[in-house]
Q: What sequence folds into this?
């Protein structure tokens, strides 16, 4: 479990093919001396397990499933990535609950500077947009952000100067892909209220409407 408050940036120092999986070598740009084998680390929003160490870095394996759903299949040596170690129960929850289980990828459609911050519009498919709400939380490359606006085709977020300084997000440009994890709570609400079967969930079916919400006591 993570918060979406990125601790720092790391560099991809190496990629090794392991059948259909890959092994990454990552060198963090901040102190991770207390990290152990088996610890979870969010890498651009993807929860990976530390499998070993080298001087100045660590190894993490990426499964084929993760490669198909995330930008991990696009990373290359020298790329910078956002890093966050797992949440401890004594930590402040400054962002929102992030699992590091990426739902899919979005694509940056617009990037505009607005005073000291930046406005991003990110396109996603309908299967993801149905879990996005205005002023709700979303993780973009592991960064916890607040949704300004949304529609069926995408959403908008603001990147404040501090977030821009501490993460890689401002290095992304129009056309670049980013990892998207929608709010955990929305997915569970849909599952409990609709009773969708796994096959129906894969088809992107949803029967949440005003009548259903009223039936369960969520009316005006």
A:
């Amino acid at each position: 479990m993570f918060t979406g408050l990125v601790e720092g940036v790391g560099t991809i120092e190496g990629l090794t093919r392991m059948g259909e999986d890959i092994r990454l070598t990552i060198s963090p740009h901040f102190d991770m001396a207390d990290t152990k084998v088996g610890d979870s680390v969010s890498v651009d929003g993807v929860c990976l397990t530390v499998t070993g160490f080298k001087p100045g870095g660590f190894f993490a394996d990426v499964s084929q499933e993760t490669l198909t759903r995330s930008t991990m299949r696009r990373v290359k040596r020298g790329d910078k990535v956002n890093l966050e170690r797992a949440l401890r129960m004594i930590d402040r929850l400054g962002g929102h609950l992030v699992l590091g289980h990426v739902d899919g990828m979005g694509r940056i459609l617009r990037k505009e500077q607005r005073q000291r911050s930046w406005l991003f519009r990110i396109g996603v498919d309908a299967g993801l947009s149905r879990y996005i709400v205005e002023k709700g939380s979303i993780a973009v490359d592991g960064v916890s952000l607040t949704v300004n606006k949304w529609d069926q085709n995408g959403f908008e977020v603001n990147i404040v100067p501090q977030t821009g300084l501490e993460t890689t997000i401002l290095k992304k440009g129009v056309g670049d892909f980013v990892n998207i994890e929608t709010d955990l709570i929305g997915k569970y609400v849909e599952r409990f209220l609709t009773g969708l079967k796994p096959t129906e969930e894969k088809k992107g079916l949803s029967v949440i409407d005003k009548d259903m919400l009223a039936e369960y006591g969520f009316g005006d």
Remarks:
- Residues 184-194 form the longest helix (11 residues).
- The chain is about 15% helix and 40% strand.
